[in-house]
Specification:
Layout: H1 4-8, H2 15-20, H3 24-32, H4 38-43, H5 53-68, E1 71-79, H6 107-118, E2 124-128, H7 135-148, E3 154-158, H8 164-172, E4 175-179, H9 187-193, H10 202-206, H11 208-214, E5 219-223, H12 231-248, E6 253-257, H13 276-289, E7 294-297, H14 303-309, E8 316-318, H15 346-355, E9 359-361
Parallel strand pairs: 1-2, 1-8, 1-9, 2-3, 3-4, 4-5, 5-6, 6-7, 7-8
Helix pairs in contact: 5-13, 6-7
Length: 368
């Protein structure tokens, strides 16, 4: 099985031309629908739909309460290593970036980093590494999992694309969640942004979320880096990918992230910026298209914006984030993967959610 044939079936679709022809009447009728089709989702990303953001927000809020209640999951990333062989033009961990200090945590540092995060009350953590293929890096990751699994009830990974067998190995060592962005769904743009390294294999990465589902991951999170390519197209194909997985893997919770990419190494700047208003429209369209879809919002966004987006469909927030390797135990650690906009502590995020009448969820899963 693969999402690729479905993706290719839209090769003849002129997204801009389609969206130009969407009328206000069409958008109004879509909002009244109980179940949306793929092109309905695309219509909600059109300029015509911007006139209906308030109506979309009301329905998105109602659907989110219906399926998730007033709960927001909290988690934080733990960066194990920034060593990477890929040459992604937009990423500070790129092999081409000579301005950062490469580092990989020792077993003692991993344990200390985990304890520092766990002391904030967080029980859900996302482990990240750069892409260094081979047996030794996977063994290093397994060692890290065995060190920290006593500190957390949910372990997710955001690493290079693996085989089903490798994902299965990680689940045996406590991993229950997988985050893997396609980065950009447009294949030609993908090739131009990944000039070298194993990540250049578009199909291997595209099918990685499905391999994670087949390895019995409890939660799989997909997404595109908004800003790398025409955002309505990228959001449309992210939604189709999420729906494809949700329809086929009923035991796996499917979610999306909507990170807006910022500047990268060697002066890289996003070529297709996404405004705050666009981001609101994206969240609302996702919620109306897939009412049971998890939606993650990262600290790339400002505190004020994250606070205002909580009622519109968001189900998961990162908190207390430091994107540098060893950032939770070493005040001198720098060279993060990206610039954080919301620097609040986990306790500050917790208080914000309580003030809004939401329940911050530190743990929703316990292995027995």
């Amino acid at each position: 099985m693969s999402f690729y044939p479905l993706l290719k079936s839209y090769d003849g679709l002129d997204v801009n031309d389609y969206m130009r022809k969407v009328t206000s009447q069409r958008v109004a009728s879509i909002i009244r629908k109980e179940r949306l089709q793929a092109l309905d989702f695309l219509a909600l990303l059109s300029p015509a739909a911007t006139e209906f953001l308030e109506e979309m927000a009301q329905k998105a809020h109602r659907l989110t309460l219906q399926h998730f209640g007033r709960t927001i999951q909290l988690y934080t990333p733990l960066y194990l290593s920034n060593q990477c062989v890929n040459r992604c033009l937009y990423c500070n961990f790129s092999h081409i970036n000579k301005e950062i200090q490469r580092r990989r945590l020792s077993p003692e540092e991993i344990e200390a980093e985990a304890k520092a995060i766990a002391s904030t009350g967080l029980k859900q953590v996302l482990l990240l590494t750069g892409d260094v293929p081979g047996k030794e890096p996977l063994e290093y990751l397994v060692q890290a999992l065995d060190i920290i699994k006593e500190s957390f009830t949910s372990l997710s990974v955001e690493i290079n694309a693996l085989s089903t067998e490798e994902y299965t190995l990680l689940t045996k060592h406590g991993v229950d969640g997988l985050t893997i962005y396609q980065e950009v769904y447009d294949e030609k743009t993908y090739e131009s942004l990944h000039p070298a390294g194993p990540k250049r294999d578009y199909r291997w990465r595209l099918d990685a979320p499905e391999r994670g589902c087949q390895a019995a991951m409890r939660r799989v999170n997909v997404g595109a880096l908004l800003g790398l390519h025409h955002w309505p197209s990228e959001v449309f194909f992210t939604g189709l990918h999420a729906q494809y997985l949700q329809d086929r893997y009923l035991d796996t919770e499917i979610s999306v992230s909507i990170p807006r990419i910022k500047s990268g190494p060697e002066g890289y700047q996003p070529t297709a910026p996404v405004s705050d208003r666009d981001l609101v429209q994206i969240i609302l369209a996702f919620r109306l298209f897939m009412p049971r879809l998890g939606i993650t919002l990262s600290t790339r966004e400002s505190a004020a914006l994250r606070d205002n987006l909580v009622p519109l469909g968001v189900t998961r927030l990162s908190s207390g984030v430091n994107t540098a390797v060893g950032g939770h135990i070493d005040e001198e650690a720098k060279d993060g993967q990206f610039i954080i906009s919301d620097e609040r502590s986990t306790e500050e995020i917790r208080q914000m959610l309580l003030q809004k009448g939401y329940q911050p969820v530190f743990q929703d899963w316990h292995n027995i």
